[in-house]
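Work package 3, deliverable 3.1, input record:
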Amino acid sequence: MTTDRDRRPAEEERRPTTGGARAELKQERAVRTRGQVLDAAAHAFAAKGFPAVTILDVAELTGMTKGAVYFHYPNKEALAVAVAEQFYERLPAIADGVRALGLAPLSAVAELLTRTATAFRDDIMIQAGARLQIERSLIKAPLPMPYTGYGNLVSGWLQEARDAGELSAGTDPDVIARVLISAFFGAQHISWVLSDRADLAERVQEILDVVLVPARST
Amino acid sequence: MTTDRDRRPAEEERRPTTGGARAELKQERAVRTRGQVLDAAAHAFAAKGFPAVTILDVAELTGMTKGAVYFHYPNKEALAVAVAEQFYERLPAIADGVRALGLAPLSAVAELLTRTATAFRDDIMIQAGARLQIERSLIKAPLPMPYTGYGNLVSGWLQEARDAGELSAGTDPDVIARVLISAFFGAQHISWVLSDRADLAERVQEILDVVLVPARST
């Protein structure tokens, strides 16, 4: 149930103001609140999974009313989609960070997977996004398609590695990319279930050693 | 609600009989019915996931009443545990089939993963078990711990391979086993999401080529 007290901030944000600076301040506050709601949703989804989370859980985590949460996201599905979209913004952001280092392509792939493992261990938005992805059939809203974007990225860098002579002849960059992606996401899921991702960094290092080292040109 | 009509078969199965042959026949029928319920539950869990399945879904798939289903499994959690246990009986059964071929250890590992991929593609009990495993946090009953049994099996066979001189020196069988298991379960999940497992056999062959071939002693 939405009370008048719940509705007030929402209407204030909607009402046109005369002072431009005041409107900007309200805009900023709305963006910040939206971010807090999203962050709380990520904590809730990561901890309990989509079916068990309620809007009240999210409201309680932010210290807001349910009405304030509903103002930003009309339902739980909208929250799940927004968290999943954040997840798919963070993966390319990790890739941008690696690109900025100017490493050779094969080292860049290794650095990308290492940093992604750290992000899966430490970033609640990524943990929530990963969990929502495996629960996608229980969510009545279209989520971004998983794995393909990240897979294409790794595949492209491995093609650069082959063009630069870093991969041995006869190695297919697409095959190596698919095996790396399968092993990475398999390891992150198994590590989540068995050790709450405590051993994920080690598992990913093993994958890099076993899959990338033999593919390197000698 | 349980009606008298629902209760009758259950009470018949419980009532002691004088004729031994008749009792045996009833016992057989109970086992068969239990198997039908389990099979229907596997279809339902694989298709809809644990949270969305109802006992009525399972009853309708068997053509039985809800009461008949409840006689065999007191609730949905008990059905999920029984399906998951079936899953964990089928994986060692695949291994027994491979052992019977008398292959060299490294070929045995490849054959095991190939047959397991086929089973994931074709066996509804395994598909249901895999899905219940990723939904395990939504199920209020303890499910068998995943991955470890299968991982130990692969690890043991790879140790035999090293002892038989099939693996190159300096190769750690446990590391190879962990990478294989991560890649296998990652590939089966990704293949399920992206292509309903249509490409799983190819993906597993790639994993064997990329992970096992370089580890072989030359």
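The CA atoms of residues 180 and 186 of chain B lie 10 Å apart.
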